[in-house]
Structures are given as C-alpha cells and as structure tokens.
Amino acid sequence: MYAVLVLGLLSTAFSAVIDPSLTEWRLVKQDLERIMFPLRDYILEVKAFRPDTYNTNPPYSELFRTDKSTTMMIMLHSGTYKSHVGRLVWNTIKYDRGYDIAIEECNVRYQAYNSWPANKEKEQIWAWNFFDDRVELTCNGDLQYEQNFDEGEFSPYKPGLPEKCLALGSQEVDRLTLKHMAGEYIRARPKEGVVEPEEPASSSAPSGGPDDIIVQTTPVPTEKTEKPTTEEPTSDDDGERYPTCNCWTRECGFCSKSACTVKQDLYNSEQGVTVTSHVKWVKLNSIMLFDEDGNSLGIFQWNLKRISLSGNCIACNSPSAIKKLGRGTEQTWTFSMKDGNVQIKVGGKVLYEQELMGRCRDIYSKVASFSFVDMSCQNSFSLTDEMEAGDQVVPDCGGTCPRE
C-alpha cells in the first residue's frame, strides 16, 4: 500500500488554493502524493534526475511499465480526487522506439520526444504548461511534446478518443496525484498575469530541498502567433474529388459496413490513394484497410511527427523530408503499397518508403478496399477509374459533409 502524503491547503470541490510554499522547490518524498494545483494558473515544473544506468531499447514487457526508474506519472483531477480527468506519463530518457511520452486521453500510443531530454544531462527541469487549446511540455526550455486538445488521435481499439482529449481541454484541473516520483522536486510557476500567493506571516515555508541546489529556471512559453501557410496542391491523377468521409459513424457501423469503403486493389496499384489535407504535428491522416470480405486489416496513419501501420509493421518517426512540409500547410499526397512497398509521395516525389516483409507483407497483400477514419470534410481524395465507391461514399458523405 502506498503511503499517501497530501501536500497543499485544503479546499472545497469548487475552488483550489495553491500552497504558497509550492512556488519554491518541494521534494516529493513518497511514491504516491497529492497536491492542490490549479493547472490553468500555474506551470507545473518538475526537477527530475536521469538514472545513471538505463536501457534505451528494453523489451516491451519492460518498456510500458510505469514504475521504472525513468518514468514519471501524474493523474489529473477536477473538484475531487475521485474525478479522474487525465493521465500524463513521460520519461527522463529518449527510447529507441520512441515510446517516450503520452497523455492517455489524447494519444493512442506513446509519442517520441523531439530530442534527448536536457542533452542527456542528469538534472532536468520539466515544465507542463496547459493553455486553453493545447498543452506543452518542455525540458530545460526545449519543446519536447505538444498536444492540441482538438487534435486527439483516433483508434477503433481505444474507445473514447478523440472526444476525451477535447474534454480534457475544457476541464478545470485543480489537483494532482503524483506517482512513482519519489526523490524528484516540484514547484508551481505562476503564468503571466497571475499574482503569486502571499506567504502567511505567521508561518515559514519549508525550503523543499537542499539549500545549496542551484535551480535552473525556464522561460514562460508564450502563445504562438504562427499562421499556417497554404501551398497549391499538386496531383498527377484526374479523378473526381470526393470528401474523405469518416467511416467511424453509426451510419457506417463504425467502419464495419462495406458501403462506406472504396474498393481498390492497392497491393497491385501503381496509382495508390491521392488525398489533399492539412498536415499537422499531432492530427493524423488515417486510412483503414480491409480485405475482400470487409475485415479490417489495419490502419495506416501519418503526420509530421510519425508514421505507423497496424500490426507493428511500421512504427517510426517521420523523416526530415516530411517534417519540412510545414505545420498547417495543405498538401496533396499519395499513399501507395504496390508489391508491399509502402510510399508517401508529395508532388510526385517519394518522401517516405518502407518495404513490408514476412507476416506484414502477407497481411497487407490482401487489401481490397479502404476508408478514411477521423478525417474532416475539408479534406478530399481522388476517386479514379480503378476505384469503386461504396453506396455511402457520395459527395456529401451521406449528409455528414453538407455541400455549399
């Protein structure tokens, strides 16, 4: 049984008052501790220490354990500790497979850091900053992870996403449960415009750590003003443009009805599937693949950060050629897998390719149709002569994508 130490002042279920002493470093002494912490008003900083001995490529049974020496976990609550609204899991090292960080309510699988935390230094200063529309995590001032609440990932194997991510963005998180973080330090850094709580005159605040520790602070992240640019789409096909109808609806039997798919022999197709969409760091482009009997074989997904194909057939970071496309830009891209060679092309140029082998090649050689998952009406694809659209693949997506 974990010992539970409650840090911070008592509060009602309707408001949270932070302990003024938490604006200084506070040692986490137990494996499970609770603190009052209004995340909208304060940046949560964690001073962590990379272990001297670690393995960047452990077996899967070890990789997903959350009580290992490299892993930290924070549970988010609103109003009461019984109200669980989120879970943050991250590591002090960068894993070879990219299983570094995840928000349970937003990510189907762990995400990769942008770089090695703190350039592999032992002492690390992490900062969780929750905005109205997104959350950012930095380490020693370097952005390692970003998640927009309206861009939660989708997977039929993890119900509730992306709705849970959107809901997390609207929650008033006012208390936290810290797990597996004994020996680390935490503190609250007021956001711009938030007045620091005054220390009661009758009490002295605990130091929260050794007096001789030199604390490295990180700058307050500012709101982004970057505007996405738009590139003229380029495409070599002459197919009719149709919206990327989302098959994850009740009308489509949550991607189980063949009427919501497009027939195409992708394994033998030189043409592939050409899509026009805005490419982003978090929001995924997702194509579900089926065999001739309508059974789901898996999902191909990609964004500026990573590329994946179900069945552990592809799981990698996106190459620099894809990252250079630019966040928020509109791109016309082609997905193909002729003879098991998976490619992403933009403007006729191959930006990514991976040859499927063994079991993966056997599975996806059976692809006979596809559909789009969790993609908006603003995206479109080319319906070519070698494709046959299902009865519900129509220009207005059965009413879900009204035409002007």
What can you see in these coordinates?
The protein has helices at 60-63, 163-169, 320-323, 358-364; strands at residues 4-7, 26-27, 32-36, 42-49, 71-78, 80-91, 101-103, 123-130, 134-139, 142-148, 175-179, 185-190, 240-243, 262-263, 273-278, 285-290, 296-302, 306-309, 314-317, 330-336, 341-346, 349-355, 369-372, 380-383, 388-389. It is built from 4 helices and 25 strands. The radius of gyration is 24 Å and the shape is elongated. The chain has a 7-stranded antiparallel β-sheet with strand order 19-18-17-16-23-14-25, with no helix packed on it. Strands 1-3-11-5-6-7 form a 6-stranded mixed β-sheet, with no helix packed on it. It has a 6-stranded antiparallel β-sheet with strand order 2-12-4-8-9-10, with no helix packed on it. The protein has 404 residues and is mainly beta. Strand 8 and strand 9 form a beta hairpin.
What's the structural blueprint in terms of helices and strands?
Elements: E1 4-7, E2 26-27, E3 32-36, E4 42-49, H1 60-63, E5 71-78, E6 80-91, E7 101-103, E8 123-130, E9 134-139, E10 142-148, H2 163-169, E11 175-179, E12 185-190, E13 240-243, E14 262-263, E15 273-278, E16 285-290, E17 296-302, E18 306-309, E19 314-317, H3 320-323, E20 330-336, E21 341-346, E22 349-355, H4 358-364, E23 369-372, E24 380-383, E25 388-389
Parallel strand pairs: 1-3
Antiparallel strand pairs: 2-12, 3-11, 4-8, 4-12, 5-6, 5-11, 6-7, 8-9, 9-10, 13-24, 14-23, 14-25, 15-20, 15-24, 16-17, 16-23, 17-18, 18-19, 20-21, 21-22
